[in-house]
Amino acid sequence: MVAPPLTALKHKHLLGIADLSAEEIVLVLDTAEAMKEVGKRTIKKVPTLRGRTVINLFFEPSTRTRTSFEIAEKRLSADTLNVAIASSSVVKGETLVDTAMNLEAMSPSMIVLRHSSSGACHLLARICKAAIVNAGDGMHEHPTQALLDAFTIRERKGRLKGLKVAIVGDLLHSRVLRSNVLLLTKLGAEVWVCAPATLIPPGMKQMGVRVTTRVDEAVEGADVIMMLRIQLERMQGGYFPSLREYFTTFGMTEARVKRAKPDAIIMHPGPINRGVEIASEVADGSASVILDQVANGVAVRMAVLYLLAGPQIDTD
Amino acid sequence: MKRLLKGGRVVDPANGKDGVFDVLIDGDRIADVGKDLKADGAEIVDVPAGLIVCPGFIDMHVHLREPGQEHKETVATGVASAVAGGFTAVACMPNTRPVNDNAGVTRLILQKAAEAGLARVYPIGAVSRGQKGEELADIAELKEAGCVAVTDDGLPVATAMLARRALEYTSMFDIPMIEHCEDQSLKGDGVAHEGAVAASLGLRGIPGVAEAITAGRDILLAEMTGGHVHIAHMSAWTTIEAVRQGKSRGVKVTCEVCPHHFTLTDDLLAAPIAYDTNTKMNPPLREARDRDAMIAGIVDGTVDAISTDHAPHHYDEKNVEFDRAPFGIVGLETAISITLDKLVHTGLIGVPRMVELMSVNPAKILHVPGGTLSPGEPADITILAPDLPVTIDKTKLVSKSKNTPFHGWSFKGGVAATIVGGKVVYVNPAVETGL
Q: Model confidence over B132-173: pLDDT tens digits?
């Protein structure tokens, strides 16, 4: 007997890719195809989440992700509001738990949380009735980013299985890396990760990826090159001597891209540091899909919100 | 007043005793231990078969939080927790507010302990003034006031030079320097053991060698100075290896392990409750290799003591993001059950070795009374109920704080009763003790 195709997520929350099966990931991607179509209409709005309240609770500055979620919510007709809290005021003021319980008291359907602490979404999920959507927690996961990356790859390549994906950059501190590795390996891609030895977390190999410190080896024959942002404070933290040396050793230049497949695509979750992890010629070149990622982010987040909202109640 | 405990299994390794004996208590002292003791006028207590009468257990590493953090624990609630956990004495760490770096704070703690009147309390003074790692605290004065050791616990002794001076200085008073081993530069902002689990949870790591490096430093300094270093709460296999090597060279080094480090691994950070802040302590839960090395050290004799590192924190302080939560768990009321279940009932060690680890050796290391039932010693007695089924319920803990990762765990073995100075200070209502 063949199991019926999946029509809903098996989880109330989206805390991380770690919780999702390959089947669920494909469901999100397929749903996002339909959502992308909504974005192409003149009237970019469907009534799916009408009457539902979604709170975007952001404890870290974010332009792209917050805007993307907000547009996704609005296109689904949700009542949406943004609560941005600077981390510094939290230190003096109320705890995350108290903030969450206060918001919870106003009965939102969903809370989209961005927070600098790994596991912050798990904490909220334990105390809130609302569905929690992880919009990035510390160095842990950023599941919607990985989903939109997968959507973009699938759109360009038609598949994920068997593709060589090279991820280059700060592996140690990156939540994008963790979510992408989990997702890509679940869907059968061959994942290579590359960074200076100081920025490779222990246990990386146990995540089912090939690890190298030689960028040429990572990029060789790749279908997808995914760059990760290098933050200035990493240099100050002594992980590498200078941004210049980082660029000469690990930066994605046109010469390095030539080692990849001729039709390889270049990805970056943004914001990009031109001349640090990626040369402008590469970021702006024809192989770059960086802005497609941004565009697809809306469709993927619509799909996630739609699938987490649960069955539509039809009172008639 | 005399009291005769008749018929229990008495385990007193210091006197080579393990068998059914009577224990005669006269006032606050042990009067005699032997077969069929006669004692006219003594209150007779028939100890049910199956219970084990031991010299009082001493937890040489607890945080009582007073003065300064009475919302977590006080001396009074701490000693109540201690006797409920079967401990007749505790040695308390100096990282109070203010720090126990002067005789005034030491006397305050002792006064609070005297008022509470349950377990004995042995204060431990700071190595450095304010635990700042700069200059030595007034160690002679601390010793005079009643401190039994010095440590900057919570932090390592900041520099090799300060550790050297402290070891030289403490050797004059025959007290150990207790070291919280942790290279601060390697620890950085770490909140969990550096390994695959922390990597997958996105938590900053503390490598095991951060502990072993400081242990290695201090063992070499103890060797050079002739001082006594005691390595607190070991968690990494490399640390125990350093201690083993030091001992084989005759260095005056002793060490302790906490129940959570010989029981749990960092897998507990991920499941069943991801990012449970009650799995966050310092040193952190490490890998199976480390946990197994602790057990091996306990079995082969390298480990001298089992301590709890009882570190109470208020619910509010733990009900936060993992990286913002304070390190530490309570341990006084779970240690005996865990040790009986995980070490004794598994056949890894016998009861005499358990008594060595939790009574004889802590008394020796800190040069405090007890650790034996020899006539003339204080009548400090821990009575074990080795087959008692125990399920840990954090809401029932006597400690003011409830931060335990063992909530809901079931163990075989527990405490029957605790006697301090001849006074019965705790009787477990779930056990028929005869008391």
A: 999 999 999 999 999 999 999 999 999 999 999 999 999 999
Nearest-Cα distance to chain A for B292, in Å, is 20
Helical residues (DSSP H) of B12-157, grouped into ranges: 75-84, 103-116, 139-145
Q: B274 and A141 in contact by Cβ < 8 A?
A: no
* Number of CB atoms found within 10 A of residue A116's CB: 16
**Beta bridge partners of residue A56, listed in sequence order:** A82, A112
Among A60-64, A159-163, B77-81, B380-384, the least confident range? A60-64
**Pairwise CA distance, residues B381 & B52, whole Å:** 10
pLDDT digits (tens, 9 = 90+) for B277-301: 999 999 999 999 999 999 999 999 9
Residue A89 pLDDT > 80: no
User: Is B316 in Cβ contact with A206 (below 8 Å)?
Assistant: no
**Substitution target from A59, A88, A99, A118 for chain B, most B beta carbons within 10 A:** A118
Reported as half-sphere exposure (CB side, CA atoms, 13 A), residue B241 has a value of 12
Q: Give the gap in angstroms from C-alpha B200 to the nearest C-alpha of chain A.
A: 7
| Torsion region of A304: left, alpha or beta (phi above 0 gives left; psi -120 to 50 gives alpha) | alpha
Cα gap B248→B216, rounded to integer Å: 14
Q: Is A233 helix (H, G, I), strand (E, B) or coil?
A: helix
pLDDT in tens, A260-288: 999 999 999 999 999 999 999 999 999 99
List, edge to edge, every strand of the sheet that includes A131-137.
A79-84, A53-58, A110-115, A131-137
pLDDT at A316: 42
Say how far apart CA A174 and CA A170 lie, in whole Å: 6
Closest CA to B118 of B392, B363, B399: B399
> What pLDDT, in 10s, does the model give residues B35-74?
999 888 999 999 999 999 999 999 999 999 999 999 999 9
**pTM of the entire structure?**
0.95
Identified catalytic residue from B309, B316, B341, B380: B309
Largest alpha-carbon pair distance within chain B? 68
Between CA B435 and CA B430 the distance in angstroms is: 13
The backbone torsions φ and ψ at residue B193, rounded to the nearest 5 degrees and listed phi first, read -55, 135
SS3 content of chain A, % helix, strand, coil (to 5): 45, 15, 40
Q: Are A57 and A112 in contact (CB under 8 A)?
A: yes
Asked if A268 and A226 count as a contact pair (C-beta separation under 8 A), the reply is yes
Angle at A155 between CA A217 and CA A283, to 5 degrees: 50
pLDDT confidence tier of residue A4, bands split at 50, 70 and 90: low
pLDDT > 90? residue A12: yes
A235-267: b or e for each residue (b if 16 or more CB lie within 10 Å)?
A: beeebbeebeebbeebbbeeebbebbbeebbbb
With beta carbons under 8 A apart, name residues in chain A contacting B194: 202
Respond yes or no: is residue B309 known to be catalytic.
yes
Chain A residues with CB under 8 Å of B319 CB are 95, 97
Q: Where are the alpha helices (DSSP H) in B92-208?
A: 103-116, 139-145, 160-171, 184-187, 196-201
Q: Is the dihedral of CA B255, B258, B259, B264 positive or negative?
A: negative
pLDDT band at A315 (very low <50, low <70, confident <90, very high): very low
How far does Cα B6 stand from its chain's mean position?
Answer: 29
Is pLDDT of A314 > 60?
no
Quick check: A243 contacting B, CB < 8 Å? Answer: no
Test B275 with A138 for CB contact under 8 angstroms. no
ipTM of the complex: 0.93
- Kindly list the distances between the CA atom of residue B209 and the CA atoms of A22, B175, B206, in Å, as whole numbers in the listed order: 38, 27, 8
Cβ contacts from A onto B, under 8 A: 67
